[in-house]
Amino acid sequence: MNIADEVREQQQYGLTYAQAGVNIDAGEELVHRIKPVVRKTFNDRVLTDIGGFGGLFDGRFPEMKFPVLVSSTDGVGTKIKIAIEANRHDTVGQDLVNHCVNDILVCGARPLFFLDYFASGKLDVSVGEAVISGFVKACTENNCALIGGETAEMPGMYAGHDYDLAGTIVGVVDRDRMFRRENVSEGDMLIGLPSNGLHTNGYSLARKALFPRYPLSSTPHSLGGETIADALLKVHRSYLGAISHLLEHFNAKEDIHALSHITGGGIVGNTSRVLSERLSLSVNWTAWKRPPIFNLIQEAGMVPEEDMRRAFNLGIGLILIVPSSRANAIESALLGFGEAPVRIGNVVRG
Amino acid sequence: MNIADEVREQQQYGLTYAQAGVNIDAGEELVHRIKPVVRKTFNDRVLTDIGGFGGLFDGRFPEMKFPVLVSSTDGVGTKIKIAIEANRHDTVGQDLVNHCVNDILVCGARPLFFLDYFASGKLDVSVGEAVISGFVKACTENNCALIGGETAEMPGMYAGHDYDLAGTIVGVVDRDRMFRRENVSEGDMLIGLPSNGLHTNGYSLARKALFPRYPLSSTPHSLGGETIADALLKVHRSYLGAISHLLEHFNAKEDIHALSHITGGGIVGNTSRVLSERLSLSVNWTAWKRPPIFNLIQEAGMVPEEDMRRAFNLGIGLILIVPSSRANAIESALLGFGEAPVRIGNVVRG
Lengths: 350, 350
What we know:
- The structure is a homodimer.
- Chain A is an alpha+beta fold.
- Strand 1 of chain A pairs antiparallel with strand 2 of chain B, so a sheet runs across the interface.
C-alpha cells in the first residue's frame, strides 16, 4: 500500500492500535499462558504476583554478615539467529539464564531472581511461550525465581520472525565468601571445566564460516550423527551445581582464588580480567580435546587460530584458579560430582 | 558477494572474527570511553568496578525492618525508531531509566541500581556513547548506580543503524511502607500527574498515524513551533522527586492507597491493576487538557477514541489513588513541589 492509499484508508476507516501492528490481546494471551508456568519458579522469598508493576523479593539475609547483591545483564548474541532459523525456541532462554548464573557465580554469588526482555516485530504467542518455557526450566534448575519480564512488540524493528532476548539476574553472596582477584598468585593452577559447545559466544563467526557449506540440517561426519543445528544449539552449561558442591568442602579464600566464565573474548580475554597487572596466563592449548564443532568451524572458515581463541571458549566453559597445593583435592571433588576437570595452564609472572 | 565467492575468499585468506562482523576492539573502545562517565553514578554502596563479571552492591539495609527488593525490566518500544530516524541518541537512555524508576516507585521503592542492554547490528561507538550518556544522566538524577550492562553486536539481527535497548532496575522499600492495593476503596480520588508527551508508549500507532503526512522535521501549527521529532522525543518523566517529597509528609497507609504508572494499556489498563475485582474506575476524560501531540495523532490517523485511551497516557503519566479526605492536602503538597496535579476521577463500585 502506498502512502496516498494509506492516508485514504485511515481517513475512511480510522487507524486502530491493532492496525499499527501492536496486538495487546496477543500480549495478554501470552501472559495468561505463561502465568502458571512462571509461578512454578517462585519460592517463599517471592512476595509478588505476575502482572504488578515491579517484582518483589525478600531482601533480608539474616544468615549473612555482609550481604552483597551481585547482578548481571546479558543476551545470547546471534545464537538467537540459529534458534530462529532452526525453529527451536525452548533452548535460548536456558542459554541466557545459565549464562547469567555463571556470570555472578564467578563472584561467588548464588542466584535470587531473574527478569527477561523478549522483543519481536510481531508477537507470536507460541514462540513466546516456548522461549519463556526455557527461562522457566533453567530458573527452576538454578533455584532462581523468574520474577519479572517485558514482552515488547516492535513493528519495523525486528524483521520477519526475528526476536531478541535480554536477561538480568540478581544474586547474593556474603562478602567474606567472595572470590577475590588479589588472592591470585604466580604458580596458581588453571583448572578448566568443559563446555558442551559454543555456549553463547562466537555465533557470528560460526555462522559465517559454516553456512556457506553446511545447512543447519546437515550432519557432517565429524559431528558423529548430530546436525549442525544440534551442535550449535547445545544449551550453555550452568556451573552452579559443581561450584556449590565444591564450596561445601573448600573455601573462597585459601582453596579457590578466582573463577572465570569463558564468554566473548575467550579463555585469555576473560581470565585476564581476574589477574593483577604483573601476572599473566600460560595456557597449554593442547591439554584438552576441543569439541568437534570448533574444528569444523575452523576448517570450514579457514579461521586463524588467534581468532578462534578470541571468539570461542574452545571447550572450556569455566576456569578455576587455585593454589597448586590444592589442585589435586579440588580435581577429586569435581570428579566426584561428575565433572571432567582438566589442567589447562598456570598463572605466571609478567 | 555470492556464496561461491565467499567460500573461495575464506579458503584463500581465512575468516577472521572482524570479517564476521564482530569488532571486539570497538566494544573495548566504547567501554574505555564510558568508564569514567558511568563511574560518576557510583555511590559508596557500589562495591564494584566496570569490567568485572557482575555488578556488586551493598545489600545491607539496617534502617529497614523488612527490606523488599523491587525490580523491573523494560524497553522503550518503537520510540527508539524515532531516535534513530532523528539521529538523537542521548534521550532514549533517560526514557528507559525513568520508565523503570516509575515502575518500582508505584510499589513505594526507591532505586538502587540499573543495568542496561544495548544491541545493534554494527556497533557505532559514538551512538553507543550517546545512548549510555542518557543512562548516566537519568541514573544520576534518580540517585541510581549504573552498575552493569551488555553491549551486543549482532550482525544480521538489526538492520542498518537500528539498535534496541532494555534496562533493569532494582530498588528497595521497607515492607511497611509499600503501597497496597487492598487499601483502595470506593470513593477514593484519582489524582493525575502530567506527562509531557507519549513517554514510552504508543509509538507504533503514532508513527503510523503521523508519518504519512508529517516528517520528523515538520512543525505543525498546533505544536507551537516544535518539530514532530521534538514532541515525540520528550523524555519520559520520572516522578521520584514528587513522590519522595510527598512521602516526607504523608504515608503509604492512610494517605496514599496506591500509585499507577501509565504505560501501555493507558489510564484504565494500568490503574485497574491496583483495583480489587469489585471496584472499577470512573474517569472524567475532559478533566485535563491533552498535550497537542495527542490531538495531532488522533486527527492525522483518524484514530478511534477507544484506541487513543488504550495506547496512550493522553497527558497523565502517574496516578495517585488517595482517600477523598486527603485529596486537598496532597494536591497542595504536590503544587508546592511544582507539580500540576489534576483530579481525573474516582474509584467506584463494580
